Amino acid sequence: MENNKIYLDNASTTMVNSEVLAEMMPFFNTVYGNPNSLHSFGREAKAAVDNARERIARGIGCKPDEIYFTSGATEANNWVLKGIAYASREAKKGNHIITSKIEHASILETCRELEKDGFKVSYLDVDKYGFVRLDQLLHEISADTILISIMAANNEVGTVQNIQAITNIANEKGVIFHTDATQAIGAINFNVKEMGIDALSLSSHKINGPKGVGALYLKKGINIKKFMLGGEQEKNMRAGTLNTPAIVGFGKAVEIATRDIIANSKKLRTLRDYFIREVQSKIDYVYLNGHSVQRLPNNVSLAFGMVEGESILFMLDMAGIAVSTGSACESGSVEPSHVLKAMNIPQDLAQGTVRFSLGKTTTKEQLDYVVEQLVDIIKKLRHMSPISKSQIGNVKKGDKKCIIKK
Ligand code: PMP
Asked: How far apart are CA 378 and CA 124, in angstroms?
């Protein structure tokens, strides 16, 4: 990233921390043995992998042998759902899974595939802030329920779930509880033992670690089928040669993120709230998606009335500012994200949604520049927009037309 550019897409991925990179470097061409080899090259690499496993276990309050390295949270999510579902089928137990409508695609797509294979899945509704409904969760649990999977924090709107309350319900009912903590790690303190969490997915690249590595924490004793088949790595539970440099970097990233959690969250929360206030005081018809307090410290998801998010994204990009939208424009039509839909955000506002996700290097000066650019961009776009102020909130459901044609 060039110095004069502003990166506000940290929910998508982050820059590798220089301390993390420094720890990784020797494992490319100095300590390059296969951690599963028995000779000294292998043993040295294994010691580094073990150290990373310990750091991650310490970061979330579990035992090192309950951490399984994966290629990221996508694989961890696929594995935990399919692995527990098929183990349950083999043991002739229940076939029902509960999740929510606002999960990441790696959970939702896997659930849909499991449904095709005969499993039953309940997708919980969320309220206007994106909180799952606990009464509905209680209602859906039956003797057939084998797994509840609810994300700790949402990647689009930043809503942080009442994860302890959900865990308590699962524990009381004796159902395995998994949480996708990809966005939450480094923002929320996890102690999986104290909290009663049975399984948790992690990803390295959201916390200033390298891409392509993550982990599944799985409580000892939980019955799960192997997902990646081949070698006998990871106690014969996940095949594939371990990516030692990435695992070393991931371990360091978790150590830093959990060590600095209080100071980092405080700094980000202050910047986040400053940015929201500035935008809302300088631009009309801007709404915050999600909850104003119970949200990720770095997430600002704003719905701009009478403009299309993608147009804002492109114009900000031209000004050297990177953000993302709450919708995907495909062949001339904008389909709002499943998260905003589940939260019942009106379609025009969902289409006008932009996610700004702050990071370690974000400064107040950068945010001031972004606000300045936004004021200008929104004015221009609204001037071009065929949608008048009187129509705000009135775009009919199901109307998929782009508001601004590109
Ligand atoms: N879950 C959530 C909530 C995410 O935000 C992401 C990444 N956008 C993933 C899972 C997938 O993680 P990875 O990139 O490590 O596969």
From this structure: 35
Q: Which one, of 75, 81, 177, lies nearest residue 121 by Cα?
A: 81
pLDDT of residue 333: 55
Distance, CA 197 to ligand 1 centroid (Å)? 19
Q: Is the pLDDT of residue 386 over 70?
A: no
Q: Which range marks the domain in which residue 299 is found?
A: 262-391
Residue located nearest, by CA, to atom 16 of ligand 1 = 74
Q: Is the pLDDT of residue 399 over 60?
A: no
CATH number at residue 348: 3.90.1150.10
Q: Is 265 in the pocket of ligand 1 (CB under 6 A)?
A: no
Same domain membership, residue 150 and residue 271: no
Task: Give exposure, 335-347, as e/b (b: 16+ Cβ within 10 Å).
Answer: ebbebbbbbebbb
Enter the tokens of residue 111: 């659930």
| Number of structural domains found in the chain | 2
Ligand 1 pocket check for 214: Cβ under 6 Å: yes
Q: At what angle do helices 261-282 and 364-384 cross, to 10 degrees?
A: 30
304-324 residue pLDDT tens? 999 999 999 999 999 999 999
* Total-model pTM: 0.94
Query: Phi-psi region for residue 189, left (φ > 0), alpha (ψ -120 to 50) or beta?
Result: beta
Q: Is residue 249 located within the same domain as residue 377?
A: no
Could you confirm whether 329 is annotated as catalytic?
A: yes
Domain annotation covers residue 5: no
**Cα(381) to centroid(ligand 1), Å:** 32
Kindly indicate the confidence band of residue 382, based on its pLDDT and cuts at 50, 70 and 90.
very high
Least confident of 11-15, 26-30, 361-365, 396-400: 396-400
Which range among 131-140, 312-321, 386-395 shows the weakest confidence by mean pLDDT? 386-395
Query: Do 211 and 243 have their domain in common?
Result: yes
- For residues 204 and 126, state if they share a domain: yes
158 lines ligand 1 (CB under 6 A): no
Q: Does residue 402 carry a pLDDT above 60?
A: no
Ligand 1, atom 6, residue with closest C-alpha: 182
